[in-house]
């Protein structure tokens, strides 16, 4: 049996939400496996970790700031990626935001913000990049970032859960739509992953569940069947597989990376 090939040499990846956490881990993993990568994130986000990555892979890794809700800016990111690398083989739709509140208190502003970034921006980035893949004859890979929250409802997390459920649904629909072009579309559903975002998540749970700061983070890690929070690199390894030759016959799937929290 032929072994899976995870070498991404001569492949070009565009990654949103790449300034930290899971997005940055995917970028680093792709670069280490030979890909050329355009990293993008909100314009004001460029931490030292990203700067170090750009210095480590000069010419192979590039960065452009972009608000994914600004579709003119998204168009420019795609143009800049094509100008630099001539094609896009892989799109990782990772940009997302989080919020929570009891259903009785959930606001329209929170709804609009979460759906604009987590769903609308993701869909139209996917559409725009897929158009270029089809135009250039690229048998591409699209990887959308869902969440275990999209597999269920949560009393405090209604808007976020709904956005991630939408990501899973759009992944399935797009996979069927792009199958004739041999473009695969899959999603990754992380569980509790130890990223900088967890400081925000933990603080919100502390507010509404009357907990001490840090208490929720410890509790959710201990509740995972494997007994600990995952690391961004553990999600990145699945993103590498889905972008690789070994995943050529996989589409319309959502992979759980959650230590056993969800069984599906």
What are the salient characteristics of this protein?
2 domains, 264 residues, membrane, Rossmann fold, seven-stranded parallel β-sheet, alpha/beta, transmembrane helix, Sc_DH/Rdtase_CS, 13% strand
Quick structural summary:
This protein is of the alpha/beta class and 264 residues long.
How would you sum up this structure, described in words?
The chain is α/β, with parallel strands linked by helices. It has helices spanning about 20-30, 50-55, 70-85, 110-135, 160-180, 195-210, 215-225, 230-245; strands at about 10-15, 35-40, 60-65, 90-95, 140-145, 185-190, 255. The protein has a seven-stranded parallel sheet with strand order 3-2-1-4-5-6-7, with helices on both faces. Helix 1 crosses helix 8. The mean pLDDT is about 95.
Task: Please give the structural blueprint.
Elements: E1 12-15, H1 21-32, E2 36-41, H2 48-56, E3 61-65, H3 71-85, E4 90-93, H4 108-136, E5 141-145, H5 158-178, E6 184-190, H6 197-209, H7 215-223, H8 232-243, E7 254-257
Parallel strand pairs: 1-2, 1-4, 2-3, 4-5, 5-6, 6-7
User: Structural class, judged by helices and strands?
Assistant: alpha/beta
The CATH homologous superfamily of the largest domain is called NAD(P)-binding Rossmann-like Domain
Strand content: 5-15%
Number of helices: 8
Q: What is the average of the pLDDT values? A: 95
Taking pLDDT < 50 over at least 5 consecutive residues as the criterion, the unreliable ranges are none
- Shape type: globular
